[in-house]
Amino acid sequence: MTLPLSILDLATIGKGQTAAESFAGSVAMAQSAEKLGYRRIWYAEHHNMSSIASSATSVLIAHVAAHTESIRLGAGGIMLPNHSPLTIAEQFGTLETLHPGRIDLGLGRAPGSDQNTMRALRRDPMSADSFPQDVLELQGYLTGPTRIQGVEATPGKGTNVPLYILGSSLFGARLAAQLGLPYAFASHFAPAALQDAVAIYRREFKPSAQLDAPHVIAGVNVIAADSASGAQAMFQATKRARVSLFFGGGTREFTDDEADMILDSPQGRHMAQMMTYSAVGTPDVVIDYLDSFGKHADADELIVAHQSNGTQERLRSVELLAQAAGLVAV
């Protein structure tokens, strides 16, 4: 494996699991990834989802950072329209001050939630329209000069926390290119525009103080297991869990037969297409897929979401992929 490998930890709350157990699993994953040689771990901001525990993203990053030593940690991403740029600058400036040289800040403009949750967050439905200006304002707080006269982020000013633009459409690609920032494409759940977005980003990229050449991170799902049948069983369990999330509102549990019937419906097949880019199988199969996917995505780095409903299965997938990829243990 020639491309660097990173991890997107979805902080999954599995069936019968608590949020506290999910956090313990995230710490265990980060500690394992650090020893095995992964480049970074990111956590995503989601709200009102009973199976995802990373809603307070910066708090989770702080907790994991306190239990690790060297691996880079960050947001993949913070949904910036949910927040003021100053607040995020202060939060990530604090993280960088406490854990220097280890913090990333990926930024997205999606709500990370549904319409009712947007209202509960006090989010203006039009706030996404100011996303480019908000990114620049945030960047000013972290790197200087501030764009709001007389307002500085403390902590934050001078920390130079690196920014990444997250996206699943051509909008994010063009913005990342215009600002000269790295671009992370969410192909692990929104595969459709991957190649077009990356091509536009590379073609329109303008060097910046942070980055002198394009850098593409592509998301991909991974289930590596000791047997092909075991990996496929976990993949099916993951898709069934998504049925509960998308069709049961996260509150209704479907039986396996019910979930499989939904998966066979047009709506279920559409949901399954979200996981088009998935490497599932024994380590040799997974690594061959990732090598091919990296070329397909024209990526400089892959960020993998280890998909499983069980903590031990995810940790085993993390370990098997690292071994197959020849990552260098720390």
Concise structural overview:
This protein has 330 residues and is an alpha/beta fold.
Overview of this structure, please?
This protein has 330 residues and is of the alpha/beta class. It has helices at 19-36, 57-66, 85-98, 115-120, 131-143, 170-179, 194-204, 228-247, 256-263, 266-273, 283-297, 311-325; strands at residues 5-9, 40-43, 72-79, 103-108, 163-167, 183-185, 216-224, 278-281, 301-306. The chain has an eight-stranded parallel β-barrel with strand order 1-2-3-4-5-6-7-9, surrounded by nine helices. Helix 1 runs parallel beside helix 12 (311-325) and helix 11 (283-297) packs across helix 12. The longest helix has 20 residues, at 228-247. The protein is globular.
Features:
330 residues; alpha/beta
Structural class: alpha/beta
Q: How many helices?
A: 12
Q: What is the terminal-to-terminal distance?
A: 18 Å
- Give Rg in angstroms: 19 Å
Strand content: 15-25%
How are the strands of the biggest sheet laid out side by side? 1-2-3-4-5-6-7-9
What is the residue-averaged pLDDT? 94
Topology pattern, helix = H, strand = E = EHEHEHEHHEHEHEHHHEHEH
Largest sheet: 8 strands, parallel, barrel
Strand element count: 9
Topology (SSEs and partners):
Elements: E1 5-9, H1 19-36, E2 40-43, H2 57-66, E3 72-79, H3 85-98, E4 103-108, H4 115-120, H5 131-143, E5 163-167, H6 170-179, E6 183-185, H7 194-204, E7 216-224, H8 228-247, H9 256-263, H10 266-273, E8 278-281, H11 283-297, E9 301-306, H12 311-325
Parallel strand pairs: 1-2, 1-9, 2-3, 3-4, 4-5, 5-6, 6-7, 7-8, 7-9
